[in-house]
Amino acid sequence: MVTFLDVGLTNAFGSVFAFIFVWVITYALLHKFKFLGDSVALNGVLAVAVAFISIISDIFVDVINTMIPYFAIAIIFFILLLILFQIFGAKEEHIRTTMQNDKAIVWTIIGVGMAIFAISLGQVLGQQFTDVSFQDSDTPVVDDGSVASADFEKNIFSTFTNPKVLGLIIMFVIGIFAIALLSAESIPKGKS
User: Among 169, 166, 161, 156, which residue's Cα sits nearest to residue 123?
Assistant: First the structure.
């Protein structure tokens, strides 16, 4: 039975999506930072060449195809956040100047991109690395919530729900907020 969310047919276009994604990102970076000058044709040809080279690797195509939905969700969230700011009265030019001048926003976007890449890499290669690690027959495979099992997703879940890891994450969050609040500029009285 065919459903609305049936995406089985799109699997055949996986390398096309990866090609377009790599081409757009490469062209945008070449055009923005002008590594090769202002030549649109040279930037386009180099972006096409990088995209063709990148789709040779099946692992790279799988990582890109895993990343694309996460980036789509992040972009939709970002657009809805901008709409929410405008609903509450923020002007478009104020949002633009804040995004251009505030380095925290830039680093947040870079951090989200790196996290999406790491998650995608883990989803594509995680089980392969786990299988390679447990090929030795002398390695005990435990199934009691420890991270010594042969199931990658179960190992990741067990790692992140470990009380020591959760405590470390909470300590990092407290430290980040403490540093951010202690290093922030204070607003003089009478100005707000």
Answer: 156
